[in-house]
Automatic annotation (TrEMBL):
GO terms for molecular function: GTP binding; magnesium ion binding; tRNA guanylyltransferase activity. It comes from the Eukaryota. Its EC number is 2.7.7.79. Keywords: GTP-binding, Magnesium, Metal-binding, Nucleotide-binding, Nucleotidyltransferase, Transferase, tRNA processing. This is tRNA(His) guanylyltransferase. Residues 183-213 are annotated as: Disordered. Its cofactor is Mg(2+). Residues 196-213 have a biased composition (Basic and acidic residues). Residues 6-79 form the tRNAHis guanylyltransferase catalytic domain. It is an enzyme of class 2 (transferase). The gene is THG1. Residues 111-226 form the Thg1 C-terminal domain. The lineage of its organism: Eukaryota, Fungi, Dikarya, Ascomycota, Pezizomycotina.
Amino acid sequence: MAKSKYEYVKTFESSTTLLPNTFMVVRIDGRGFHKLSAKYRFEKPNDRQALELMNAAATAVMKELPDINCAYGISDEFRQAAVSSYAIVRWKSSALPVFLNFAGLHELEASHINNLYNTTFWALRQKGGMDATQAEERLKGTLASEKNEILFSELKMNYKNEAEMFKKGSIVYRDYDNSSSGFSREASAPAVFNSEKPKLSKTQKEEERDRRVKASMTIENTDIIRDDFWDQRPWLLSGHLDS
């Protein structure tokens, strides 16, 4: 491409250097999902089949790429690696789901806040008889407690009864406790997960990769904002959140 009319694309290239002993998060967000969900009449605000499709796609990617420790998904986004091709294979239709990649860390609390808003918004429309503009105006400036009260008092809904997958999203991770590899929790975290990483021989690297491949894939709908989830699975964060 040098000295060609396409050489200008090099001006769009940029390099990013990762700090040592850090992990990378990739956010995959849905593109055109409004039209897709309308075409196939997804249930609002959450469609269980669509979410399970995304979980299956994320799991397939993790099986294909053993270096990925975990993936977190809610709504039309996943924080992991590209899942479009796997979702398309399982979709089997003319209008295909597409995911875009965004690198960076994002506040997980937003997922919970967004779902509470969406649940209340669609309840006001479906049960409260409001149009979109009216529902948006009703919710403008409201706190989480006020949205819960609207659901309970006005719409006879208890947000606590919503499915955990809708409220908390799905975390897909390599579970060494339940794996077929036979490693216990204490022994399961490969040396590559330790804060002080020794230099591994080629054979050791192959063994570590084999452990990752053999680890079972677990999907949970739980609160990953709290430390408990990560404290019980130290290998997921590679021991870099010691505080």
